[in-house]
Amino acid sequence: MQHGAVKFGCPVWAHAPWVGRFFTHDARREDFLPQYAGVFGAAEGNATFYGLPAPATVARWAVEAPESFRFCFKFPKAISHETQLLGPGAGDGPLAREFLARLAPLGPRRGPFMLQLHSSFGPSRLGVLREWLARFAAAGGEAPAVAVEVRHAEFFAGGAAEDDLHATLNAAGAERCVFDTRGLFAAKIAPDDAASLDAVRRKPRVPARFTALGKRPVARFVGDPALDKNGALIAEWTGVLARWVDEGREPLFFVHHPDDGHAPELARRFQASLHSLRPERVPAPAPWPCELEPAPREPEQLGLF
Q1: What is the structure's pLDDT at 295?
Q2: pLDDT value for 156
Q3: Which of 2, 20, 169, 205 has its CA 20 to 30 A from that of 176?
Q4: Are the beta carbons of 1 and 286 closer than 8 angstroms?
């Protein structure tokens, strides 16, 4: 399908509980990515934060996803957290080179790559980030841009530190990856909702930002687990995305749900809302694979004679 000026996606694409609810009822693992890519234009690649996929797996993805699809893989934590962008984790270090080489077969399907910095990575270390981005650009060849997600409080204070961050990213041609968790933290979560309670524990509680530095801003959203309670945030983000589209940008917008089960539905609501504002630039949501399945045949009744 044509995804228009905005690529919507989820944090995963191979989610077995979606079988029969999003995927077709007979979908197998090798069907997940082709079926997902028929609906959404992008996906987060969070698994690379913990380890790199096997070469054969990457080769399979390159066949299963169209060239218009975008995998936004996260840099390994060995780079962003364990080495803090230094030594082997430098932009042209062995860890970054291995990451690039492993994902190279995806070609134009890559990116932007996401660099999630530790909450302790503050303004005093912007020089390290500046050097890392420069060295990565020099080593990356045709690698896509980088979207940097920060979690240090000073980068959300609206002062000199935030200005310096944006100047650093702008100079490197990098984006600021924004993560809106307001809906999650405002939710009334039931004591037995383990997935949502775990999300509250793991997700950052930071102020919302609507920052677009370059042509392809990246935003991540996790809302209230009760889908119908996200209306105001959907409307707010729809206005932001419409403005970015009007400015000639091509955003990537990723929609999370605490257990990922309802992420496709929430993403569909965002896309439908934006389509209503910019129908000429953003198509209506595509039918899900399970919705395109033929209806089951009614069993034939046997005659009396």
Answers
A1: 66
A2: 96
A3: 2
A4: yes
Return the structure tokens found at 144.
Answer: 């896509």
Token representation of residue 44: 């987060």
What pLDDT, on a 0 to 100 scale, did the predictor assign at position 293?
A: 87
DSSP, res 89: G
Q: What pLDDT shows up at residue 186?
A: 95
Sheet of 252-256, strands arranged across: 70-73, 42-45, 7-10, 252-256, 218-222, 175-180, 146-149, 113-116
Mean pLDDT in order along the chain per 10 residues (305 residues)? 81 95 96 97 94 96 96 97 96 95 95 95 97 90 86 95 97 96 95 93 93 95 95 98 96 94 96 96 95 70 47
Q: Distance between CA 58 and CA 53 in Å, rounded? A: 7
Element (H, E) at 176: strand 175-180
Query: Are β-strands 146-149 and 175-180 bridged in parallel, bridged antiparallel, or unpaired?
Result: parallel
Chain centroid offset of residue 255 CA? 7
Q: Which residue is it, tokens 């929609």?
A: 255
Residue 217, pLDDT score? 96
Q: Rounded to a whole number, what is the distance in angstroms from the first to the last CA of the chain?
A: 51
Six-digit token string for 205: 């509680």
Please list the alpha-helical segments (H only) found in the chain. 29-37, 55-64, 77, 94-103, 126-140, 160-172, 182-186, 194-202, 231-246, 263-277
Q: Which residue(s) pair with 254 in the sheet?
A: 9, 220
Q: Which CATH number fits domain 7-292: 2.60.40.10, 3.90.700.10, 3.20.20.410, 3.40.50.12780?
A: 3.20.20.410
Query: Percent helix, strand, coil in the chain (nearest 5)?
Result: 45, 15, 40
